[in-house]
Amino acid sequence: xxxxxxxxxxxxxxxxxxxxxxxxxxxxxxxxxxxxxxxxxxxxxxxxxxxxxxxxxxxxxxxxxxxxxxxxxxxxxxxxxxxxxxxxxxxxxxxxxxxxxxxxxxxxxxxxxxxxxxxxxxxxxxxxxxxxxx
Length: 134
Description:
It is a single chain. It contains five helices and no strands. It is an all-alpha fold and 134 residues long. It is globular and about 50 Å long.
C-alpha cells in the first residue's frame, strides 16, 4: 500500500522543481551572499541604497523586481527545506531582498546565530570576500 499516490506528471513536476532549486542554490545564492557588504549587519540602521536617489519610475521598477525576486527566493527556500538545496540560506537571501517592517532587526538577529553566520562566512571565504562582521 503506497502512502502517496502521485501521478507521473506530479512526480515529474517535483523532480524538476527539486533539480531547479538545487541548481539555483549552487549558482545564484553564492552570488547574492557575496554581493552583501561585510558590515551590512553591524549597523543599527540599514545602509542607504544609492538607487533610492534615482528617478521615481526607476525606484519603483527596482522595488518591484527586488521584492518579486525576494518572494521567489523565500518560497524556493521553503521548498529546499524538504528538497535538495540550501533552504535556510535561500530563505535568508529572499528576506534580504524583501521590504517589510522590522526586516533589518530580524535579519541582524538571524545572522548572529552561530550556524547561520558560519555558513554565510564559509561562502564568503570561498568567494574571496571578507567575512560578515558581527
